[in-house]
TrEMBL record:
PANTHER family in alphabetical order: LYSOSOMAL ACID LIPASE-RELATED
Domain AB hydrolase-1: 355-575
Protein name (record): AB hydrolase-1 domain-containing protein
Keywords noted in UniProt: Lipid degradation, Lipid metabolism
Region (Disordered): 47-66, 170-209
Length: 603
């Protein structure tokens, strides 16, 4: 069996992104929705995630809580109203924690300790890996890391960061829609359609809106007041999409990606024009590009609409004057516009990175948990698997640099590191995504839908995912049924920007912030939080040598390091530290002993 190469992964992810873009919005709303017919567990989750966010106002700062007790169908139906816990959530309670300054509400799965369990002083927060949700910590009643911890007396909370599992936005940005996209019975005329399809500008709390008089007005004597009779829908579709692109420029993504996308779009449009029309088309395109980069106002919107009309007229007149004519150019232009719409939709929907998790999501979750559990010293215990552990390292590193209190009594990291440079991690296959050009092609990776679709054939060579099992679990360490449940339920869509930032862990200096100005490993020697760092002997994703690269930077009196697995077996791969069949007898006691030692409250 040939090995998986970076070129294979690049092509594979590009194809996945195309499939994701081509799917319906409802299917993309479910981060982990498998192909039909899915198991009951997945059906309930898919229906819950496909439901639109509640139209009622966002919850108060205290958040919202959903308790157990509803049937699967009733829970799925009530989830739309935010009133019941969906069947996929097997926790005792489902809470939603608002992230200040955003529209996100993070899903927090809570497991309350039974009355007979030991009394603990601190709640326990669990953070999962990249592109995963809470299910990995609670696969089944007999294989639930979260439930096991709650039975040991810990008030246990699994945090689902933005975009994962049951976390949701308060209101999703609307995609541009034209009359041709509406159902036949929508009853909208052309003027109504044009008004409904323009995306509202996102609020910018840091800057005031510029005065209209300050915006330069471009005058073009070739602009016409009315569109050609045969192309009004195409003009509307183009102008609305360009308006969305302008709003995206000013509100969502502040880097060069959108300029490249716009340039690529107009390059494709120019392919529809005869040579004699190229000069005029290029002139109009340049004017539109200039307007897109300005603060968007009604004046700018009107000019973009007029220029869109002019662009379509140029294409139409050009075809009248050449022989042979390019038949179907309207359909090709419409398809080009739709491709741009889909790309913008995906970028807007998945415009976050690792720093958003670190600086916004995790602090919001911690504040919410503290308000609910009320620890006497205001601290939490925390366990992070894979990226979850990286988040914990990054958090204590920043606190060490700033001299701040991390509000963590102790942390446990499972298969985590901030520096992979000395290891032969299989994650190096993601390095091609470090090229910004790749982000344009693959702005988000629908890993959940991808694995759900391909899993039935993924364990047989020569398919590209034939190495999937060894990446997740060592031989005979997981029941096949549980492994299937993990793959079909635990993975989600992840922004390429998250992966882009994580790939810095494979470069000199290790993992850094989004601006490349802060390297987390450089400040681990300043931390004051006890750390238990665990590794698996056959972990291909985060090998023991990668874990040790981080461990060696932490003060020796604060860190405990252990590798699980024996030469003759059993062996531990990446997920086995959480859900392997031997973990409950070998790994869990080690973690519980460490947490118990650091659960004391200083007087």
């Amino acid at each position: 069996m040939r090995l998986l190469h970076a070129s294979d992964l690049r092509a594979f992810l590009a194809a996945a992104a195309v499939a994701h873009l081509s799917s319906s919005p409802a299917s993309r709303a479910s981060h982990c929705a498998p192909p039909p017919p899915p198991p009951l567990r997945i059906r309930a989750f898919a229906s819950a995630r496909a439901s639109p966010p509640p139209s009622s106002p966002s919850p108060s700062p205290t958040g919202a809580v959903v308790s157990a007790g509803a049937s699967a169908s009733a829970a799925a139906a009530a989830c739309e109203q935010g009133a019941a816990k969906p069947a996929i959530c097997t926790a005792d309670e489902l809470h939603y924690a608002p992230v200040p300054g955003t529209e996100w509400r993070l899903a927090l799965w809570r497991y309350r300790p039974p009355p007979e369990a030991p009394k603990r002083n601190h709640p326990l927060m669990l953070l999962s890996g990249v592109a995963t949700n809470a299910v990995g910590f609670d696969l089944s009643p007999g294989a639930s890391f979260a439930r096991h911890m709650s039975m040991q007396g810990f008030d246990t909370w699994i945090v689902e960061v933005r975009g994962a599992g049951l976390s949701m936005r308060g209101s999703e940005p609307a995609a541009a829609k034209t009359k041709s996209d509406m159902p036949p019975d929508s009853g909208l005329d052309e003027s109504t359609t044009a008004q409904a399809s323009v995306v509202s500008p996102a609020k910018n709390m840091s800057t005031s809106q510029p005065q209209i008089s300050e915006v330069p007005v471009i005058v073009d004597k070739n602009m016409v007041g009315t569109s050609t009779p045969e192309e009004p829908q195409l003009v509307t579709k183009l102008s609305n999409t360009l308006a969305q692109l302008g709003e995206t420029f000013s509100s969502y993504v502040k880097d060069s990606r959108l300029k490249n996308i716009a340039d690529s779009f107009f390059d494709r449009v120019s392919e529809l024009a005869p040579d004699a029309s190229l000069a005029s088309l290029e002139e109009v395109s340049e004017k539109i590009l200039g307007l897109l980069e300005l603060p968007q106002t009604s004046v700018i919107s009107d000019q973009i609409s007029n220029l869109s009309q002019r662009l379509v007229k140029i294409l139409g007149e050009g075809q009248q004057n050449v022989s042979p004519r390019l038949f179907g150019w309207q359909e090709r232009l419409s398809a080009t516009i739709e491709d741009l719409q889909k790309q913008l939709e995906l970028i807007i929907s998945y415009d976050w990175d690792f720093d958003h998790y670190l600086e916004e999501d995790v602090p919001a979750a911690m504040d919410y948990i503290k308000k609910q559990s009320v620890p006497k010293d205001g601290k939490l215990l925390a366990i992070g698997h894979s990226m979850g552990g990286i988040l914990l390292y990054a958090m204590v590193s920043k606190c060490g640099f700033e001299g701040a209190e991390p509000e963590l009594a102790a942390i446990v990291t499972l298969a985590s590191s901030v520096d992979y440079t000395t290891s032969n991690s299989s994650l190096k296959l993601l390095l091609p995504l470090a090229d910004p050009a790749e982000i344009l092609r693959v702005p988000a990776i629908p890993l959940g839908a991808l694995l759900s679709t391909t899993y039935p054939i993924s364990s047989r060579a020569p398919y590209i995912l034939s190495l999937l099992r060894s990446q997740i679990s060592a031989k005979e360490m997981m029941d096949p049924e549980l492994l299937s449940k993990l793959i079909l339920n635990n993975f989600c869509t992840v922004p390429a920007k998250v992966l882009l930032q994580l790939t810095t862990a494979f470069r000199d200096g290790g993992l850094c912030n989004r601006t490349g100005t802060f390297f987390f490993k450089e400040h681990l020697h300043k931390i004051k939080v006890p750390v238990l760092a665990l590794a698996g002997d056959e972990d291909l994703i985060c090998p023991p040598e990668a874990v040790y690269e981080t461990v060696k930077l932490i003060p020796q009196h604060l860190v405990t390091y252990k590798v699980f697995g024996e030469p003759e077996g059993p062996h531990y791969a990446h997920y086995d530290l959480v859900g392997g069949r031997k973990a409950v007898h070998e790994v869990y006691p080690c973690i519980i002993e460490f947490l118990s030692q650091h659960d004391k409250v200083s007087s």
